[in-house]
Amino acid sequence: MDILVKECEKIKNGYFIKVEPKDIFYVDGKGGQLGDRGNIGGANVLEVREDGIVIDKELDIKEYSIEIDEERRKDIACQHTAQHMFSAIAYNEYNYNTVGFRMAEEYTTVDLDSNEIGEEIIEDLEKRANEVIQKAIQLKIFVMNNEEARKIEGLRKAIKDKVKGDVRFVEIPGVDLGACAGFHVENTKDIRIFKIINHEKIKGNYTRFYFIAGDRALKDYTYKHKLSRELCHIFSCKEYEILDMLDKSLEEKKKLESECKNLASQYVELLAEKLLKEEEKVLNYQPIFYFGDSTVAQFLGRYMKEENILVTGNGNNFSIMAQSFNCKDFIKYLIEKKGDIKGGGNQNKGNFKGKIEEKELKEFLKEYILLSK
User: What letter does residue 241 receive in the DSSP assignment?
Assistant: First the structure.
């Protein structure tokens, strides 16, 4: 199949082309569905818009052969039919209306018009969806003129007023009938498996469901199975013991953190005494520098006197605190001297980050104290 490139313009993330015919590639987001991908004359399709296509390299104004990613289309068809099926079951069994649908690269979301959907119903919705898949129902896809289409009764969702001309219907016999222009499988068995991976309340009155189907669900299971096996190996336990072992591990971690804080608190008193003896005064101030463990650093402030300026750091992140020294003005001074430093604070404490050596920082602080006398 060939396509004519009529215009090609450089844009921020690639090249925007206008083509003829316009409708070969399915538009991103149309009807909530993902758009097509593929290539045009060797240029990869990055995005499909209503008014044109974004590609990754410049093309001349002429005809090109195209390739459409058929595997992607199969995946989209699987997710899209799964959405029709799920929405229909939610409506038929529990009278929940679908008020939102969006397909993403990793999952699909469906918003139902209730915020009181319990776990028992959620499990039932998933179970019923997989039962429909197992029934291997052949889909029916047909087109009717607009006038006749609007006479059809029993549609889960009314045809929108903006729809003009012929209307394409997708029917899962005994399950769902609705107007739709998107990709769909031929038979429900092609979906293979349907899995709800998450749900949350949104906008106060709705519940958003996240689901995957087909290859996406199988890949998800493979990943989680490997993850489960790795956790069993780490904890030396059975799968059903993982959560108990994780809870135990977290409790041990909390205990160790508490013990470390206690030790740090005791160590800091000795460290503060050592630092106060070692550091020299600059006029009326005695700067104290500590670049080490953050837990130790947070306790050091307890032992600082009025003349002390405490500077602590870890990596490229620093803190400064003092009782009678303007930390905010010093950070401004440091930013002026070192353009790659960012930060702020108030008179008694502040934070800044950037690449600066300990020796250089000490010199800047000494320099600022002498200039401010």
Answer: G
Q: From 323, 322, 324, 337, select the one nearest 368 (Cα to Cα).
A: 337
Co-location of 124 and 27 in the same domain: no
Give the end of a domain, one of 68, 91, 111: 68
Name the pairing type of β-strands 43-49 and 52-55: antiparallel
**How would you write the pLDDT of the chain (373 residues) with one tens digit per residue?**
899 999 999 999 999 999 999 989 999 998 889 999 999 999 999 999 999 999 999 999 999 999 999 999 999 999 999 999 999 999 999 999 999 999 999 999 999 999 999 999 999 999 999 999 999 999 999 999 998 999 898 888 888 888 889 999 999 999 999 999 999 999 999 999 999 999 999 988 999 999 999 999 999 999 999 999 999 999 999 999 999 999 999 999 999 988 888 888 888 888 888 888 887 888 989 999 998 888 888 888 888 888 999 999 988 899 999 998 999 999 999 999 888 899 999 999 999 999 988 889 999 999 999 988 7
- Residue 216 and residue 104 share a domain: yes
The answer to the question of residue 232 being in a domain is no
* CA-closest candidate to residue 40, choices 26, 70, 19, 71: 19
Structural domain harbouring 132: 73-222
CA–CA dist 72, 30 (Å, integer): 16
Instruction: Kindly tell me the burial class for residue 273, based on how many C-beta atoms sit within 10 Å of its own C-beta (0-12, 13-18, 19 or more).
Output: exposed
Q: How deeply is 300 buried, as exposed, middle or buried, from its count of CB atoms within 10 A (0-12, 13-18, 19+)?
A: buried
Length in residues, the chain: 373
100 and 47 housed in the same domain: no
- Do 156 and 174 belong to one domain? yes
Q: Calculate the CA 160 to chain-centre distance.
A: 32
Please check whether residues 57 and 117 belong to one and the same domain: no
Instruction: Determine contact, residues 291/312, Cβ cutoff 8 Å.
Output: yes
Is the residue at 111 inside a domain? Answer: yes
Q: How many domains does the chain fold into?
A: 3
Report the SS3 class of residue 84: helix
234 in any annotated domain: no
* β-bridge mates for residue 287, sequence order: 309
- Report the alpha-carbon distance of residue 103 to residue 36 in Å, rounded: 13
Is the domain of 185 the same as that of 125?
yes
Query: pTM to 2 decimals?
Result: 0.74
Query: Does residue 279 fall inside a structural domain?
Result: yes
